[in-house]
Design goal:
The protein has 11 helices and 10 strands. The protein is α/β, with parallel strands linked by helices and 279 residues long. It is elongated, with a radius of gyration of 23 Å. It starts with 11 loop residues before the first strand and ends with a helix.
Length: 279
Amino acid sequence: MIQKSFKDKKPTLYVVSTPIGNLKDMSYRAVEVLNEVDVILCEDTRTSSKLLNYYDISKPLMSFHDFNKEAKQQSAIDILKSGKDIALISDAGTPGINDPGYELILDVIDNDYFVVSIPGASAAIAAIISSGLLIQPFTFIGFLPRKKGDQKALLETYLNRKETIVIYESPLRVKKTVEALYDCFGDRKITLARELTKMFETITRTTLKQAIAIEHDTRGEYVLIVEGSHEPIDLSMTIIEHVKHFIDEGHDEKAAMKAVAKLRGITKSEVYKAYKINK
């Protein structure tokens, strides 16, 4: 399907970015679109009502969140079938980015209607631009898994990746997450951004080791920007020297052996034997 968004006319789902903190983050175009659509889907009608009242937008609101999205998707498709347009907004930022929306977007496309993005604020983009770390390439992870084993397994897949990593985290879990990052990556640069675009916006540029000792504010969502790997594959070192190099960089012995195995393309047992037996 070729979508010519503004040349042709079809019932359309507009995916509209909303402020991530400061209500003035809203674009003129976003306000215009929300005034023109027939129905607005939102996560929390109370939160969205404050935004719409601020911009004097009066349109029907329909809740659309993780707990009712399957039922509401069909309602949204029915609205489009009747020839009306819909907007999808989240409580903050761009819908679909760690918010409900992806499945609805697919459903709308599968039903041969249009999906149009109305770009705007994004916490991930705002944080990485002001982080002082490499802006591109970067990888957006979003929220890490809650279970420690799943979290560790995911982080290890990024151990030797060179791009900057972007993670979302709640203020109550940020300290444990920083500790998990240090355990996996050793000491790297990190920027912690909280309350972006709000009165109490705070951006902390530090290292993972130093960040563990910081008393992090427990108010406001965090974006963590973590430096990528700078580790060259130096096969002139022996396996023992290679493991010791990673340990000197801040990795524990187990993580160091695992990193060496990945870099050298050999098994962990081979590294273990060479390191433990011959050191």
